[in-house]
Amino acid sequence: MTSENPSPNVPDYVFGTDEKFSLLHSWSELYIAIHAALKQFPKRDSHGIGRRIEETALNMLEYLILASKKDDEQRINLLEKLDRELVKEKILVRLSNRVKAMSDNSYIDIEKRIIEMGKMIGGWIKDEKGKIAENKKKIEQMYLIPNH
To answer: 78-103 burial, b for 16+ CB within 10 Å, e for fewer?
Structure first.
């Protein structure tokens, strides 16, 4: 299934025409894996760490959507928040596995998905910082007065 990029200022790998490589698709796959794993949590853990894992995943979606709609510095700020949420998710998932609330198989699957998303988010941040640096350089060159 293909989709059009809803935000033209956002790199194709975020919403992408090939969903297998889009960040939104990766988030969806991560959430599906988390949702399945949380169904297996003991009741005590599902109301504690399980709830936090799901909230963090949903926060990630919010930051992803917001970042796709903003420009420059605001986008980088949201992407960095998204990256922090991903790190928090990684820690929560690891902890849930260590306390035996999440199975090893679920943990391995989710961890791989988190790593994949981390690479994509890092690439997007790098692209955005490069664009900002390039724009600043162009502005400086426009206002540079040649010496006579």
So the answer is: bbebbbebbebbbebbeebbeeebbe
**Chain centroid to CA 11: how far?**
14
Closest CA to 4 of 71, 120, 15: 15
Angle at 83 between CA 120 and CA 43, to 5 degrees: 110
Contacts of 67 (CB under 8 A, 6+ apart): 10, 75, 78, 79, 82, 124
How many independent structural domains does the chain possess? 1
Question: Terminus-to-terminus CA distance in the chain, angstroms?
Answer: 60
Q: Which domain holds residue 64?
A: 12-142
Task: Confirm whether pTM is higher than 0.85.
Answer: no
CA neighbor of 101 nearest in space, from 55, 49, 57:
49
- With pLDDT > 70 as the criterion, what percentage of the chain qualifies? 83
| 4, part of any domain | no
Q: Which of 117, 64, 109 lies closest to 87 in space, CA to CA?
A: 117
How many residues are present in the chain? 148
